[in-house]
Structure formats: structure tokens, C-alpha cells
Design brief:
With 603 residues, the chain is α+β, with helices and mostly antiparallel strands. The chain is built from 13 helices and 23 strands. The strands form five sheets. The protein has a seven-stranded antiparallel sheet. A hairpin with a 3-residue loop joins strand 22 and strand 23. Helix 2 runs antiparallel to helix 6 and helix 6 crosses helix 7. The two termini are 46 Å apart.
């Protein structure tokens, strides 16, 4: 059945026919179903990357494969339609479940191979009413190194087992052969099997709950509510973008430091055109070519609207992020062979670096268009992975994504110590109990947040002692050579680094995107992550806020005076008001962006 027919079938009720009370009940119910699905994944998954880090998500979709409720993670909403290429909706049956992780075949719906996607069609009274969907990051699916995501990879086929869209469950019957094949290719088969069961349980729960919702309201009413939610989100987002971006053409360039194979920096170049008749055209075509190393990102064209839409929605409580955001841009231009649209078999495993720099690039465009009226930039979250053998002779794999700082906003400080959206770092007690490692410290990284009227979020410091006889270390850091920029008069953020045995004669600095570094029992590793850029002139920040930052360990006394113009009394217990007024009497000039120095554009 063609997609346009699916949409026509979806609803005999129009958005205007849905009363506001029913619409809000349906919207709230969808969010509750999504949350219940995700809690089930967290409670039943086996691997720490899902259970402790919460690297998973769920969503609910209409019969055309448009997301009605979910998250823009892994930075796309188009997770259902890749299945239609092999399994048209009219061939689907109750009890079917579809599975894939193929990044290229799904056109970037999934962006690296460890992310496994399950999709289940939902039927009511013999009619397809939507889809239940889940995904999660599996710790190891084969490939050249444990963890499946080595920076050493130069080919997609080195990054683990590739699964095109397949029918994992046919009319309620599990296709065990597929699972046996997949599990056999993992170094952690028990985890893989358990994690898949968790996803299966969650996607089944979503199907059950969506059917119950249809039973309560009726298929037509539910489909009409879906259309109304999509339309409302699309309309509001277009209005908000038009208010921020006036007619004109705006350009911005973001940078990725390196691909880990001697190539870099790599430029992400953007142009945003807003026409007089209200069209928005986003052009990525001048971005640099794909790289040998695994920082390539297959950017699904629908992702741009979801990412910018998530920012424009902000903390709205009356709107939900859904596929209506895909209509934010009238045209999204990408160039095949670029780092944002690589050709098979370019490796993708460390695409998280480029993903976060791409998001920063979109914020840069909004700032260029509004003269500093949007949020400042952020650091990409860091990753370090330890592989080795414990005292009992068992192989271990500890892969931990570590929090960083996010950019300040025109109305508030940036978020401190956030990994990625709602995801988390491993608790120290968990690491100490389950790995031959010991967490020695976990603290804020002072002065990593960019100075500004609103301070950029700070990164963290995480120190760990190796208790295994030896292990190999993978590190992923970026935005070091090109720190996260400040906006609207704010200054750029501090950067990260990884050091073995800091402050000793055996001190070694680990390359920021590297694998295979050997560490031994007793070695101390210190990971420092970067922060977010500041927003607004630092001299406009209230002295009391600066003092609180110093006392809280976010800002040093040196930075308070040098960057914020706030002089503290001896011991740093109070503000020296007279000295501060004298220090701030000479006010440095600012411009729209700050990258170590102020400038009006970044191109």
C-alpha cells in the first residue's frame, strides 16, 4: 500500500474534529506508554550500557511510519520506514516484529551498528493503526575489537554484524535462526541475548498499550489525534524558526578535530536560506569529504528538522517533539561522499563526535541569523573503554561514556556534567564492584564552562585506578583544537584531555581519538572533559553568582577576576565590591562569537 494511501486510511477524522481535551489525554497517554516501555528496557536489559547508562529509547508511530511520540535519538525520527522497503505495510500481520541495524540501507535512520532497532506493527479491529518501536545500544556485536567501535576501524565491516531489515518474529513465531547467528558473532552472547529479550518485551508492551488506547477512543479518533499532534508541532516550530531567522542567507562552519588517522581538521559547512515567501533551505553540500577514520555520519535528511525542532521546543510542556518537526525545513541538501553522507563502506563507529559537532553547527547557524540569539556550543561527550582479563581469567569490557558541559542559553547557564540527554555515567560503586577498576575521584572540571553573563556548563574529571594486570584503552575526545564557541558576547569553553599517571615521572598524554594504549595494574588514568560556551558578556554576570561558582568549584578565583571582572577578598569568601567595580570599569568589547578571540562570523 503506498504511503499516501496509508495516510488517507489513517484517519476519517480531521485534526479540526478532535476536541482539545481528548487531544491532551491522547498526548499524555502516548508519553506514558513510551515511558513505560523504556522503564521495562531498563529493568530487564543485561548489559551495563543499557541498564546503567540508559542508552536506549522507544517510540510510537502512525501507520505511515511518522513518529507521534518518542525522542530524537539516535538523532532521527525515521526509524520505521526503512522496514517498508522489504516488508510493505499491507503484508504485515499481528504479532510481527522487524529488526535492523544497517546504517546505509536505512539511510541513517540508525547511525552505527551497535544500535539495534525493533519495529512492531499494531492492529485494531483488523486495521493497522500504528507501530511500536524500540532501540538500544548493544555492547558488543563482533568486529575487529571488543566493543565493536574501535577508532582503528577503516571499514564498516570491521564494526560488527550488519543486519538489514528482517522479520524477527512472524505472526508471533520467533525466527530463532536469526538470533543464533547474531549471538554467535558477539563476544558477550549472554548480554546480547538478554538485551534483545528486553527490547522484545518493550516493543510488545507498546503494541498492547497502543491497542488499549485505540479501544478506548476508537481507531478514527486516535488517528485524528495523531494528525492533530503532528500539525500542531509543525505549525509552532515554523513560527518559532521564522521569528528567529529573518529572510536572508546565513553561513556557518563547524570543525571536527581529527578522524584518528591523521586527517583533520574536517569542516562541516552550512548555509541557511530563509526566503521572503517563508521557505527555509538548509544546505550541507560544502562540507568536507568522508574520512578514512570512523567519524563519518550518515545524516538522514529528516534529522535536521528534528534536531533544530528539539532546540526550538525548549522546555515546552504543551507540545511534543514528533515527526511534525521534519517539516521545519522545506529542503535539506546533502552531498554524497561528504562526511555527512558517506559512501559504503566508510566506517561510522565514532560518528558521535560528528553528530554533536553537527548539532553545534545548527546552533551556529541560528546564532549567525539572530546575531547571537541562540545557545552557545557544547563539547561532544567523551568515551573511554577498557578491555582485558580480570583476576579470575574472565575477559572484561568496560565502555563508559563520560559527561561534558553544554552551552549557555540566552536566559540560563548551560547544563553541567551531562552525558547525552537523559543518559548517565556509571556510578562509582558500580564500577568498583563489577570491573577490575577503582574510581578515585569524580568531580567538576573547573573553568571548563565558558565565561559569560550565563556560564557554560562544566565538564567533569574522572580518575580511575587499573586493578587488572593489564588492559588496553580506547579514548574518544574532540573539540580540543576547536573549543566550543561562546555566543552573544560569551567566551569559548575549556577543553578535555586524558592522562596516564598525572603529575608523576611516568605521565603520558593519550591521543584524543585512539585505541590500543596499554595500561597496567596500578596505573592512574585521569579523564578531563570539556565544557560548553558562555552566553552574553561575562562582566554582566552578577558578582554573587560568580562567587557561588567559585565556592562550588565551577570557576577558579583566577578566572573570576580575569574573565568575569570579579575580585574576591583574601580566601575567596566574599566579593571585594570596590575592587570589582574598578576592575569592571573598563569593559572589553565583544562580538557574536568567541573562539579564543571575538569574531562576528565563523566560516
Amino acid at each position: 500500500m503506498p504511503k499516501k494511501d496509508l495516510r488517507a486510511m489513517a484517519s476519517d477524522a480531521t485534526p479540526a474534529d478532535i476536541d482539545p481535551v481528548t487531544l491532551e489525554i491522547v498526548r499524555g497517554a502516548l508519553r506514558a506508554i513510551q515511558s513505560e516501555m523504556e522503564m521495562l528496557i531498563e529493568r530487564t536489559a543485561m548489559s551495563a550500557f543499557i541498564r546503567e547508562k540508559k542508552d536506549y529509547a522507544s517510540g510510537l508511530y502512525d501507520p505511515a511510519g511518522r513518529m507521534i511520540a518518542g525522542k530524537a535519538l539516535p538523532f532521527t525520527s525515521d526509524l520505521v520506514t526503512p522496514v517498508f522497503k522489504y516488508y510493505p505495510p499491507e503484508t504485515m500481520q499481528p504479532g510481527d516484529v522487524y529488526w535492523y541495524n544497517d546504517c546505509y540501507d536505512s539511510h541513517g535512520a540508525v547511525t552505527h551498528t551497535p544500535d539495534q532497532v525493533l519495529v512492531a506493527p499494531v492492529f485494531f479491529e483488523g486495521r493497522l493503526i500504528g507501530f511500536s518501536q524500540t532501540w538500544a545500544h548493544f555492547t558488543d556485536i563482533g568486529g575487529m575489537r571488543p566493543g565493536s567501535l574501535s577508532p582503528d576501524c577503516t571499514d564498516l565491516f570491521q564494526e560488527g554484524t550488519i543486519v538489514p531489515p528482517v522479520r524477527l518474529v512472524a505472526a508471533g513465531r520467533m525466527q530463532d535462526e536469526l538470533m543464533r547467528l547474531f549471538v554467535r558473532n558477539s563476544r558477550q552472547p549472554a548480554n546480547v541475548r538478554g538485551d534483545m529479550r528486553a527490547l522484545m518485551a518493550a516493543v510488545t508492551l507498546g503494541s498492547t498499550r497502543l491497542t488499549e488506547l485505540a479501544r478506548r477512543f476508537g481507531g478514527d479518533e486516535l488517528a485524528g489525534a495523531f494528525d492533530a499532534l503532528l500539525e500542531r508541532t509543525a505549525t509552532v516550530l515554523r513560527e518559532r524558526l521564522a521569528a528567529l531567522v529573518k529572510p536572508g542567507t546565513y553561513a556557518f562552519t563547524e570543525w571536527v578535530d581529527s578522524d584518528g588517522h591523521g586527517n583533520g581538521p574536517i569542516a562541516l559547512r552550512y548555509t541557511l536560506t530563509a526566503t521572503e515567501d517563508g521557505r527555509f533551505i538548509l544546505d550541507h553540500s560544502k562540507t568536507d569529504d568522508q574520512t578514512k577514520g570512523p567519524i563519518n555520519l550518515i545524516l538522514n535528511p529528516k534529522s535536521a528538522g528534528m534536531l533544530v525542532g528539539a532546540y526550538l521546543l525548549g522546555d515546552s510542556h504543551d507540545l511534543s517533539l514528533n515527526a511534525g518537526a521534519e517539516r521545519l525545513f522545506d529542503e535539506v541538501i546533502l552531498r554524497e561522499g561528504s562526511i555527512l553522507q558517506p559512501r559504503l563502506p566508510a566506517p561510522l563507529g565514532q560518528r558521535g563526535v560528528t553528530m554533536l559537532r553537527n548539532l553545534s553547527g545548527y546552533l551556529g547557524l541560528l546564532n549567525a541569523a539572530s546575531k547571537g540569539g541562540a545557545s552557545a556550543s557544547h563539547s561532544p561527550y567523551a568515551i573511554w573503554t577498557f578491555r582485558g582479563t580480570d583476576a579470575g581469567g574472565e575477559r572484561f569490557l568496560m565502555s563508559d561514556g563520560v559527561a561534558c558541559g553544554y552551552g549557555a542559553r540566552p536566559f540560563a547557564d548551560g547544563h553541567d556534567a551531562v552525558y547525552l540527554v537523559a543518559q548517565e555515567n556509571y556510578p562509582a560503586e558500580f564500577v568498583d564492584n563489577f570491573y577490575p577498576m577503582r574510581i578515585l575521584s569524580y568531580a567538576m572540571n573547573p573553568d571548563s564552562g565558558g565565561p559569560g553573563r550565563w556560564r557554560g556548563g562544566c565538564g567533569v574529571i574522572r580518575e580511575i585506578e587499573v586493578l587488572a594486570e593489564e588492559a588496553t584503552l580506547l579514548v574518544r575526545l574532540d573539540a580540543i583544537e576547536h573549543p566550543p564557541w561562546g555566543a552573544g558576547g560569551g567566551q569559548c569553553a575549556g577543553t578535555g584531555r586524558c592522562i596516564i599517571n598525572p603529575g608523576t615521572e611516568r605521565e603520558v598524554h593519550v591521543p584524543p581519538l585512539s585505541d590500543g594504549t596499554l595500561v597496567r595494574r596500578g596505573d592512574i588514568l585521569r579523564l578531563e572533559t570539556g565544557g560548553g560556551g558562555g552566553w552574553g558578556h561575562p562582566f554582566d554576570r552578577e558578582p554573587e553568582r560568580v562567587l557561588a561558582d567559585v565556592k562550588g568549584g565551577f570557576v577558579s578565583a583566577r578566572s573570576a577576576e580575569a574573565d568575569y571582572g570579579v575580585v574576591l577578598t583574601a580566601g575567596g569568601r566574599a566579593v571585594d565590591t570596590a575592587a570589582t567595580e574598578a576592575r569592571r570599569a573598563t569593559r572589553p568589547a565583544t562580538q557574536t562569537f568567541h573562539t579564543g578571540h571575538y569574531r562576528d562570523s565563523i566560516q
